[in-house]
Specification:
The complex is a heterotrimer of chains A (972), B (416) and C (94). Chain A is α+β, with helices and mostly antiparallel strands and 972 residues long. Chain A contains 20 helices and 53 strands. In chain B, strands 1, 2, 8, 9, 10, 11, 17 and 18 form an eight-stranded mixed sheet that branches. An eight-stranded mixed sheet of chain B has the order 5-6-4-13-14-15-12-16. A two-stranded antiparallel sheet of chain B has the order 3-7. The radius of gyration of chain B is 21 Å and the shape is globular. The chains are: A alpha+beta (972), B alpha/beta (416), C alpha+beta (94).
Chain lengths: 972, 416, 94
C-alpha cells in the first residue's frame, strides 16, 4: 500500500462516510471525493489494465483526460463501461469494477502479451494473421476481439431518463478557473446574459486544486466570492457538471449536464443527464491547459502521475500518492509541486530537473539539475527510479511534468488548426474571430495574473472593463522534455492504447510519417482520451525522427466530442415508443371500439383488420372483403393526404403538377391524377375534386402526403410564382371514410340531408358538398378503390368517430362491416389498382399502363424528361396481373419472374411480383407484377422464382384486373 | 519484403529497425503514361490493377494530402453486395470476390471480416422490398437470406422487441457482407502498387488539366507540370471541382456524411446491422469501438464536418434499435465529403476528352466498391473502353434515361 | 448552422430541408430542341466549393422555400431570400 489519506486538509467532508466497492472490496470515502481520490485514499493504486499489453495501471491525471483509471460503474441496466474514475463523484453505495483483465485485476493472464511485446509493435497485425486464409475469421480475429475492447457494456435497457434543452446567451464562458471566472464576471457586470459552464463537480477549475493567492485571499475564498456574486445576478446561468463537448456552425455549442451522475439513482422526475444546444452570440474558451507526461521507461507504473494530478490529489482530496516522491520535469512548476507536497507532509526525495541551468528552488528539497528519470522501477507500484546517469532513488511515487498543452480542442472543431509556439512549447488556438475567443492558459497565458487579466478583458470586450485583483504568480520557464532515450523500459505515449515512443519512429521508417498516418498506424491518440495527454509528445518524437519542425508535422484533427458523450444524452426522451410521434386518425377511437388491429404506416397507426372471435389476419381480411363486396363495408381512409387548393389559377396550377389536366374538370366532379417528378418518373397519384370554379381538393397517397405538399410549395414559390393560388394541407382537418359495396348507397342515404342519392344526383366520380345527420357539413365523393359501388365521405375531424358510428348503425340492417388496410389491399389487387409497390420511384406512367393520361398539350412537371429513350423503351417492365396456374399455389411478393423453361440467372430475370393477395372472390392468390414488355405478354406462363424462400410455382401473366373486368359492380 | 509472421519475428530481433518503407516517397517525374488523380482507395486500387492486371508501367498517383486522406480513411468500413439492379449487382459482387482474396493478393492484412450484414425491416412493404432484393441477389448467385422476427431475435436478443415504436419484423441478411479495416485497404493497395513501380506522390495537388486538340496532355500541380498520356480522375467528393478544370459539369452534389465511433467495448455486436425505421447502421471494430453512422446532413458541403441535428437523429435511431446503447458513450464524430449522384449510382467512364477518364459519384457507398472500382477503372483506362461490369456506369445515362436508381428517389442527390 | 428566414427570423438548421443549387433555371419551352437544356436543368450542377445559392424549405416553420447564400466549405451563412423573390429577380435579369 503506497497511497494514503492525509490527516488534514482537502475539500472533503470528513464527517461523511460514503461506502463504495471496487472489484467487490468495500471501502469508505468522503463527500467531495472522486472515485479515484477515494481509491488512492484507501491505498488502492492498481485501478486498471492497459489495452494491448495488459499492464497494471493507476491514475495518471485527476481530470477528464484520464486514460488509465477506467472502470465499469454501476450495475444492471445502469452499468457504464469505461468510466473515468477521476470524474466520478463518490456517492454512498457506489459499485465499480476494473476492466480488461482475467481472472482478476491483480493477476491478469492477458499480461503475457507483454512477453511477446517485441513482436507486437505498432501495426504488427497488418503484417500477419493472413495464413491460412480461413483462420482470420475463425481463429485470429475472435481472439483479438476478445482481448481488445475495454469495458463491457450492459445489454439491458437503461432505466434512467434524459432531457434536451435549448439555451441562448450573449456570452458563453467555458471553464470556471481563474480565467473563466473573470470572463464571466466581466460580461455579467456589463449586463450580458451569461452562461458559465464547467465540466467539474464544482465551479472554480484549477483554483479548487491549487494553493493560490488572489486579491489578498486564498484562491478558494476568491472563487467563493465570485461565484456568490454571479449566483446573485439574474442574467447569469451557472452550469457546473456541464461539459461543452462541441462547437458547431452558427456558434452553436453542444453540452451535456450530468444532472444526476453524482447520485446513486436520479431523484424522482429528474433526468440522469441533460443535453444542451447553446446558441451564444459569443463565447470565451477558458478551458485551461493539460499537463503533459514525460516519456520514460515505466512512465505508466502505478505511482507515476502528472505533477498537477499529484498536487490536486493532495490539495483538493487530501490523498497522497506515496510517502516519498520524486518530482521530475523540465519546467519551473516542478518546484511548486515539491513545495505543495511538502506542505502536506509528503516527503520529496528529490527534484529531477532536466535543465542544467535552471535557477529555481524549493526550500529544503534536493535538486538534481540536468538530470533525467530514465526508468521507474517496480511492478504494480513504484519502488524507485533510475536516472539516466545511473543514480538510483528509492521512492513510492513519481510526479512528472513535460509542460503544458493549452486545451484548444473546441477552438479547432470548425476546421482551423492550432499554431505551434516554440517559446511556450505549445500549440496555441487558431484565430476564430470575435464570436469565439480563447483566454487564459488555453491561449498560452501561463501566469495567474495573465489569466485573470485575459479573462477579464475577453469577457468585457463589448462591455465595461472590471478591476483585476492582484495575485501571486508562479514562475514559468520551460525547456523541451519529450522522451528520455536512455530508458530501458517501455516509454508510453498513448497510455491506453499502449503505443510507445519507439512506435513513432518505426511508423516513420515504414512510410507512415505524416502525422495522420502515424496516428492510424500506431493508434496513438485514438483511445478514449483522444490524445489529450499523448499527442503533443507524439508530434515531437515524430518531428525529431523525420527532421521536421512541430509546425511541419502539425496536429491531427481535433473533433467532437471533447469528452465522450452517452448515447442517452443525445437521445433525450425520444426512446422506445417515443422514438417518433404517433399519428392517430380522427376515426381511431371508433376503430378501437370495433376491435381493430393497428399497423404502423409511417407515423400513422392505421386499422389493419378487425378480427372477430378466433380469426387470424387472413380470415378476418377475407371476411371483410366478402362482406363488403356482398353488402357494405366501411374503411378509414383519413390518412390520405388532403390538400385544399383555391384561387383564380388553381386549375392552372394543378395542370402544372399533374401530367393530366384538371382545369377542364367540371365543378362537382372528381378525377384521378398522376403526378410525375421532373425526371419523368411517377411521383404520386390520387383523386382531385373540383368543389367550385376556384376551389379544388386534392388527395395524395398516405406515404407521400408531406412530400407532395413540399413539392407543391416549391413548384408554386420557386417555379410558378405568378400563379394566383393558395393551398393548405387539410389532412388532419377532415375525417374520411370509404363506404363500399352494393348497399353503400342505401346506407349513406339514411344520413344525407335532403338529397335523394341516385346515379343522376350522385354519379360516378361525383364530388359534392352536402350536409348529413341534420346539419353536419360533409363532402360526398363517389369514388372507388375497391371496385365496388362506393363512396368516400369526409366530415370535419371532430365528427369523425361519431359519424362512423352512425354509418355503422345505418348499415346495420345490411350487416355492415368495418374493413382495414388488409382488406383494402386485397380489393385493390383484385381490381389491379396500383399502389406503393408499383409507384416505387422508378416507374413511368407508361409502365403503370397510364401512358394515355399524359398530356401532350401543356407544360407540366416531368413532361420533357419522360420522353427520354430509356423511359419509353418498350422492353421496360410494365404492370401486369399474375395468378398461379395451379389454383392451390401461393405466390409471394418479391418473387422474380422467369420464362417457363429458363434457369434462374440475372440475364433471364423478367421482372418481379410487386404485391399479392389472397382473393376470397376468386379463391386463389392473385398478384400484380412488373414484367418486361408485360402488356404484350398476357397469357404467357412464367416461373415465379422465390429462391430466397425456396419456392417456385408456375403462373400466368394476365390483365392487372383480376376481378369484375367490366367494372359492372362499380356502376351497379 | 514480404509480410508474414516470420519476417515479423525476424525483425523483432533487430528492434524493428530494418523494416523497409511500405512505399517510396518519389519525386514526380516529368512525364507518366498514366496519372491517377486521387490517392484514396479507388485511385490506389486503380493504379494497383493497372500495374498488376494490365502490366502497365510508368504510372503515378497524385494525392493532394496524405495517402488515404479521403473517404477511404473516414468511412464506416462496411462491405456488402446486396444490390438489386442488373447494372449494379454484378459489379458489387465482383468487388466482394476481390475482397475475399485481397489480403493474400496484396500481402497486407486489411482484416476482411465477413461478419454478415443484416438489414432490418419493420413493415410488410419493407419485407416485400427485401424479398425482391434478396431474390435479385440470389438469382445472380449472391448469398441472401430473409429472416423473420424470431431469427433476428436469436441473432441479436438485445434489440428492442417489446417496446419499439416500429417493431422489428425481420431482416435481409448477407452473410458474406462484413467489415474491413479501411486504412489497411489504402495501405495495402499503396504498398502493392509501389512495389510494382507506381509512383505514389503525396502532397501533390492538381491545379489544372491541360487539354490540347481534345486530348489530355498533362496536369499542373503545386509541384510543377507533369505530362501524361492518360489521366484518370478518382477524387471522390471533389469530383465536380476536378471536372471543372476541363469545363465539365457533373450530375452530382457534394454532401457531408458524418460517422461516429464509441469508446472501446468488449464484443457487443457481432455483425453489421442497419435499422429500417431510421438512419442508423452499426458494426464493431476489432479494436472494440462501435462504428456507426446514418444519413448525410442534407446541405451541400465540402467541410468534412457536420452539425448536431444529424448527430441526434442518428443516435436516436440507434437507441430505438438497441436500448442498451443509451449508456454507451460516443467518442468521436467526423465527416467525409460524398459526391452524391443524381441516381445514387456511380460513374466509371470515358469522357468526351481523349485520354480523360472519370471515376465519381459514389454517394456514400464507395468503400465497399473499392476493389471493383479500381479493377474496372483500370480496365477502362487500359483498354479505352468500359468493362461489361461497369458498362452501366455511363456518364450519359441521365441524358438517355437509363438511370440506376436503387432507392427510387430520382434526381435529388441528398435523398440517395 | 442558423438560417435567417425572412419571415421567421434566425432559426436553426434542423427546421429546414435542402434541395440543392438554385442556379439552374427551368426551361420555358417544351420544344424537342430544348431537350439538352432540360437535361442540364434536371441533372447538371455547378456544385461549387465555396459560395452557393441553395434552395432551403422552411419545412419546420413558415413553409416558405428560401434561397440561402452560404459557403459550402466554411458553412458560413450570408443571408436568405424567399425563392419567390429570387425567381422574380432572376426573371427580371433574363
Amino acid at each position: 500500500m503506497t497511497s494514503y489519506r492525509l490527516d488534514k486538509g482537502g475539500l472533503i467532508d470528513r464527517s461523511s462516510a460514503l461506502r463504495f466497492t471496487f472489484d467487490g472490496a468495500l471501502h469508505v470515502g468522503h463527500q467531495g471525493d472522486t472515485l479515484a481520490s477515494a481509491l488512492l485514499a484507501n491505498g488502492v493504486t492498481l485501478m486498471g489494465r492497459s489495452f494491448k499489453y495488459h499492464r497494471p495501471r493507476s491514475v495518471i491525471t485527476a481530470g477528464a483526460a484520464e486514460p488509465n483509471a477506467l472502470v465499469e460503474l454501476r450495475e444492471g441496466g445502469r452499468k457504464e463501461a469505461n468510466t473515468r474514475a477521476t470524474m466520478v463523484e463518490l456517492y454512498d453505495g457506489l459499485v465499480s469494477k476494473s476492466q480488461n483483465n482475467w481472472p482478476s485485476l491483480d493477476f491478469d493472464v492477458g499480461a503475457i502479451t507483454s512477453l511477446a511485446s517485441s513482436v507486437f509493435v505498432a501495426g504488427f497485425y497488418y503484417k500477419t494473421f493472413m495464413w491460412p486464409k480461413s483462420f482470420w475469421e475463425k481463429i485470429y480475429e475472435p481472439i483479438i476481439r476478445r482481448a481488445a475492447g475495454l469495458g463491457t457494456a450492459s445489454k439491458l435497457p437503461d432505466p434512467d431518463k434524459y432531457e434536451k434543452s435549448y439555451a441562448h446567451c450573449d456570452v458563453l464562458v467555458i471553464g470556471s478557473g481563474p480565467t473563466g471566472l473573470m470572463a464571466a464576471l466581466a460580461a455579467a457586470r456589463s449586463g450580458k446574459r451569461v452562461i458559465l459552464a464547467d465540466e467539474g463537480s464544482a465551479l472554480g477549475g484549477s483554483l479548487l486544486n491549487e494553493q493560490e493567492e488572489i486579491g489578498g485571499q486564498s484562491g478558494l475564498d476568491f472563487t467563493r466570492g465570485v461565484i456568490a456574486e454571479l449566483s446573485s445576478m439574474p442574467n447569469v446561468t451557472l452550469l457546473p457538471r456541464t461539459t461543452i463537448m462541441g462547437w458547431f456552425d452558427g456558434n452553436i455549442f453542444g453540452a451535456v449536464e450530468r444532472v444526476s451522475d453524482h447520485l446513486r439513482v436520479p431523484d424522482p422526475y429528474e433526468p440522469r443527464q441533460r443535453y444542451w444546444k447553446i446558441h451564444a452570440k459569443r463565447a470565451v474558451l477558458a478551458a485551461g491547459a493539460e499537463e503533459r507526461p514525460v516519456a520514460f521507461g515505466g512512465n505508466d507504473m502505478p505511482g507515476v502521475m502528472t505533477a498537477t494530478a499529484m498536487r490536486t490529489y493532495a490539495n483538493r482530496y487530501a490523498a497522497a500518492a506515496g510517502r516519498s516522491v520524486v518530482v521530475f520535469g523540465g519546467n519551473d512548476s516542478i518546484y511548486r509541486t515539491a513545495r505543495d507536497l511538502k506542505s502536506h507532509g509528503i516527503h520529496v526525495e528529490a527534484i529531477v530537473d532536466s535543465r542544467k541551468d535552471s535557477k529555481a528552488d524549493a526550500a529544503g528539497v534536493p535538486v538534481l539539475r540536468g538530470a533525467l528519470v530514465a526508468d521507474a522501477v517496480g511492478g504494480k507500484a513504484v519502488k524507485s527510479v533510475h536516472l539516466a546517469d545511473g543514480t538510483h532513488i528509492n521512492c513510492e511515487a513519481v510526479a512528472m511534468s513535460g509542460g503544458w498543452s493549452p486545451i484548444v480542442n473546441l477552438a479547432c472543431h470548425r476546421g482551423k488548426k492550432p499554431v505551434w509556439d516554440a517559446k511556450l512549447l505549445a500549440f496555441l488556438p487558431p484565430d476564430n474571430g470575435p464570436a469565439f475567443t480563447v483566454a487564459g492558459s488555453a491561449a498560452g497565458k501561463m501566469l495567474l495574473s495573465e489569466c485573470l487579466a485575459d479573462g477579464a478583458a475577453k469577457g468585457a470586450v463589448d462591455g465595461k472593463p472590471i478591476d483585476i485583483p492582484t495575485s501571486r504568480d508562479e514562475a514559468f520557464a520551460i525547456a523541451p522534455l519529450w522522451w528520455v532515450k536512455e530508458s530501458h523500459g517501455k516509454a508510453f505515449i498513448d497510455y491506453q492504447n499502449d503505443s510507445t515512443a519507439k512506435d513513432l519512429p518505426l511508423a516513420a521508417r515504414e512510410g507512415y510519417s505524416d502525422v495522420e498516418l502515424a496516428k492510424r498506424y500506431t493508434t496513438t491518440g485514438m483511445a478514449t482520451d483522444q490524445g489529450k495527454l499523448g499527442n503533443i509528445n507524439a508530434i515531437a518524437i515524430l518531428a525529431e525522427a523525420t527532421g521536421r519542425t512541430m509546425d511541419e508535422v502539425g496536429t491531427t484533427t481535433f473533433r467532437p466530442f471533447y469528452t465522450p458523450v452517452s448515447f442517452g444524452a443525445f437521445t433525450g426522451p425520444f426512446t422506445g415508443h417515443h422514438f417518433q410521434p404517433v399519428r392517430k386518425t380522427p376515426l381511431h377511437d371508433w376503430a378501437e371500439e370495433q376491435g381493430a388491429v393497428f399497423v404502423e404506416t409511417g407515423l400513422w397507426m392505421r386499422s389493419s383488420w378487425f378480427p372477430r372471435e378466433g380469426e387470424d389476419w387472413l380470415a378476418s381480411a377475407s371476411r371483410e372483403v366478402l362482406n363488403t363486396r356482398g353488402s357494405v363495408g366501411i374503411c378509414d381512409v383519413s390518412t390520405l393526404g388532403k390538400i385544399d387548393v383555391q384561387g383564380k389559377d388553381a386549375g392552372a396550377f394543378l395542370d402544372k403538377l399533374y401530367c393530366n389536366t384538371f382545369s377542364t374538370l367540371a365543378v362537382g366532379k372528381a378525377r384521378y391524377g398522376l403526378m410525375l417528378r421532373e425526371d419523368g418518373i411517377v411521383y404520386d397519384d390520387g383523386t382531385t375534386s373540383r368543389l367550385a370554379e376556384d376551389h379544388y381538393v386534392m388527395t395524395t397517397t398516405t406515404a407521400n402526403a408531406a412530400k407532395v405538399m413540399a413539392q407543391m410549395e416549391f413548384a408554386h414559390q420557386a417555379l410558378f410564382p405568378d400563379l394566383d393560388v393558395t393551398y393548405v394541407s387539410v389532412t388532419e382537418q377532415w375525417a374520411q371514410m370509404a363506404v363500399a359495396g352494393p348497399k353503400s348507397r342505401a346506407t349513406l342515404q339514411k344520413l344525407v340531408d335532403g338529397l335523394v342519392m341516385t346515379d343522376e344526383s350522385v354519379p360516378y366520380m361525383a364530388a359534392l358538398e352536402v350536409s348529413i345527420m341534420g346539419g353536419i357539413p360533409a363532402r360526398l365523393f363517389r369514388l372507388s378503390f375497391s371496385g365496388e359501388h362506393a363512396y368516400e365521405l369526409a366530415v370535419p375531424a371532430d365528427y369523425g368517430s361519431m359519424v362512423a358510428r352512425a354509418v355503422m348503425q345505418a348499415g346495420d340492417e345490411f350487416g355492415i362491416t368495418p374493413y382495414g388496410v388488409e382488406a383494402l389491399s386485397i380489393m385493390r389487387i383484385e381490381k389491379g389498382h396500383v399502389a406503393g409497390g408499383e409507384l416505387n420511384g422508378t416507374t413511368t406512367a407508361g409502365d403503370l399502363g397510364m401512358g394515355k393520361m399524359v398530356s401532350t398539350k401543356k407544360d407540366f412537371i416531368g413532361r420533357m424528361m419522360a420522353q427520354r429513350p430509356g423511359l419509353v423503351d418498350p422492353n421496360r417492365q410494365q404492370v401486369v396481373g399474375i395468378r398461379p396456374v395451379n389454383q392451390a399455389d401461393r405466390i409471394r411478393a418479391g418473387a422474380h419472374l422467369l420464362k417457363q423453361d429458363d434457369t434462374p440467372s440475372m440475364k433471364n430475370d423478367q421482372g418481379y411480383v410487386t404485391g399479392v393477395a389472397w382473393s376470397p372472390m376468386l379463391d386463389m392468390w392473385v398478384g400484380l407484377a412488373l414484367f418486361a414488355n408485360g402488356r404484350a405478354r398476357h397469357g404467357e406462363i412464367v416461373q415465379v422464382w422465390d429462391g430466397l424462400r425456396g419456392h417456385r410455382v408456375m403462373a400466368e401473366i394476365c390483365d392487372p384486373m383480376h376481378f369484375d373486368k367490366e367494372n359492372k359492380r362499380l356502376h351497379a | 519484403m514480404r509480410y508474414n509472421v516470420f519476417s515479423l519475428i525476424k525483425n523483432s530481433f533487430s528492434g524493428h529497425k530494418n523494416w523497409e518503407p511500405a512505399w517510396r516517397d518519389p519525386v514526380p517525374q516529368k512525364e507518366y503514361d498514366i496519372i491517377i488523380v486521387g490517392g484514396g482507395g479507388h485511385g490506389l486500387a486503380t493504379a494497383y490493377y493497372l500495374a498488376k492486371e494490365h502490366g502497365l508501367k510508368n504510372i503515378a498517383v497524385l494525392e493532394k494530402g496524405w495517402l488515404g486522406s479521403g473517404n477511404i480513411g473516414r468511412n464506416t468500413t462496411i462491405i456488402r453486395s446486396n444490390y438489386m439492379l442488373p447494372g449494379n449487382n454484378p459489379f458489387y459482387e465482383w468487388s466482394m470476390k476481390l475482397w475475399e482474396n485481397l489480403e493474400q493478393d496484396f500481402n497486407f492484412n486489411a482484416m476482411v471480416s465477413q461478419r454478415g450484414v443484416l438489414n432490418l425491416c419493420h413493415t410488410d412493404a419493407q419485407r416485400d422490398a427485401f424479398a425482391r432484393r434478396g431474390n435479385a441477389m440470389r438469382i445472380a448467385g449472391v448469398d441472401a437470406e430473409l429472416l423473420d422476427r424470431e431469427a433476428v431475435r436469436e441473432m441479436y436478443p438485445f434489440f428492442d422487441y417489446e417496446n419499439a415504436r416500429f417493431p422489428i419484423k425481420g431482416g435481409l441478411l448477407q452473410k458474406r457482407g462484413g467489415t474491413v479495416r479501411h486504412d489497411g485497404v489504402a495501405w495495402g493497395y499503396a504498398r502493392g502498387a509501389d512495389s510494382r513501380g507506381v509512383d505514389i506522390i503525396q502532397h501533390c495537388e492538381v491545379k489544372g488539366i491541360k487539354v490540347e486538340n481534345g486530348k489530355v496532355v498533362g496536369v499542373d500541380t503545386n509541384r510543377g507540370f507533369i505530362k501524361c498520356k492518360k489521366l484518370g480522375l478518382a477524387t471522390a467528393g471533389n469530383s465536380s471541382e476536378t471536372a471543372k478544370m476541363v469545363g465539365m459539369r457533373l450530375p452530382m452534389e457534394s454532401h457531408v456524411l458524418q460517422a461516429f465511433v464509441s469508446e472501446g467495448l468488449k464484443p457487443y455486436i457481432d455483425g453489421v446491422v442497419t435499422f429500417g425505421a431510421g438512419h442508423f447502421y452499426v458494426s464493431q471494430s476489432d479494436k472494440g469501438g462501435l462504428v456507426f453512422g446514418g444519413d448525410i446532413d442534407g446541405y451541400n458541403s465540402y467541410a468534412r464536418r457536420g452539425n448536431l441535428p444529424m448527430v441526434e437523429h442518428v443516435i436516436e435511431a440507434g437507441v430505438a434499435m438497441i436500448p442498451s446503447l443509451s449508456r454507451v458513450r460516443v467518442l468521436r464524430s467526423w465527416g467525409g465529403i460524398m459526391d452524391m449522384s443524381m441516381d445514387g449510382s456511380p460513374i466509371i467512364d470515358k469522357t468526351h476528352i481523349e485520354g480523360l477518364y472519370l471515376n465519381a459519384g459514389w454517394c456514400y457507398g464507395g468503400f465497399k466498391a473499392t476493389p471493383a472500382s479500381g479493377w474496372c477503372f483500370a480496365y477502362t483506362i487500359a483498354k479505352d473502353e468500359p468493362h461489361k461490369l461497369n458498362a452501366a456506369y455511363r456518364l450519359d445515362r441521365f441524358k438517355t434515361g437509363h438511370m440506376l436508381d436503387e432507392k427510387g428517389q430520382g434526381a435529388t442527390p441528398n435523398l440517395h | 448552422m442558423l438560417i435567417p428566414c425572412p419571415h421567421c427570423g434566425t432559426r436553426p438548421v434542423e427546421e429546414f430541408t435542402f434541395l440543392g443549387d438554385a442556379a439552374p433555371t427551368r426551361p420555358t419551352t417544351n420544344d424537342p430542341s430544348s431537350m439538352e437544356a432540360w437535361y442540364e436543368y434536371v441533372y447538371l450542377r455547378n456544385n461549387p466549393r465555396g459560395a452557393i445559392e441553395e434552395y432551403a424549405h422552411h419545412s419546420g416553420g413558415c413553409r416558405s422555400w428560401l434561397v440561402v447564400s452560404r459557403n459550402t466549405e466554411t458553412h458560413e451563412v450570408f443571408g436568405a431570400v424567399t425563392a419567390r423573390d429570387f425567381s422574380k429577380a432572376k426573371d427580371a435579369k433574363a
